[in-house]
Each structure stands twice: as structure tokens, then as C-alpha cells.
Amino acid sequence: MAGISYSDLRTNIRNYTEVSSTVLTDAVIENIVLNAEYRLFRDVPSDAYRKTATDNLVANQEHANVPAGALFVRSSSSCWFYIRF
What we know:
The chain is mainly alpha-helical. It has one domain. The protein contains two helices and two strands. It is elongated and about 55 Å long. The mean pLDDT is about 75.
């Protein structure tokens, strides 16, 4: 599926689900695609937008300094901590 256009993707989704554009509207498909993109961004480790910083965790301190725009923090033990906004 490499190089597929958005229009072809919509058509393929409608063909796979066997429904027309009156049932599976462009807005619904856009939500499906966005949710898939967010899921991939969250679950697949990628260095494309990686920012790094080093900080020491202190007992009883709730905050750590992170780079601007960071969405999660990965510790040296490969644990992931998601940032709450």
C-alpha cells in the first residue's frame, strides 16, 4: 500500500466495509484515519520527532524538566511515562 493517495484510501476503506459514502462519510473516515495516526504515534517508537534531555528524579518531587513539545518521557529502564496536560 505504499504511495496510496487519501482518495484511494477512502475508497479502499469503503470497499472493505462494504458501505457507501452516505453511511461512511468523509468526516467519519477522517476520524478513523486520525485515530489510526494517533495510535501509531503513541504505540510505535519513532525517532523522527525525538527530543532528548537528561534530568535527575528526586524523591517526593512531582515534576521533571522536559523539552518543549514532549509527549512522553522514557526512562533508562525503557519505561514510558505519558505527560498530562
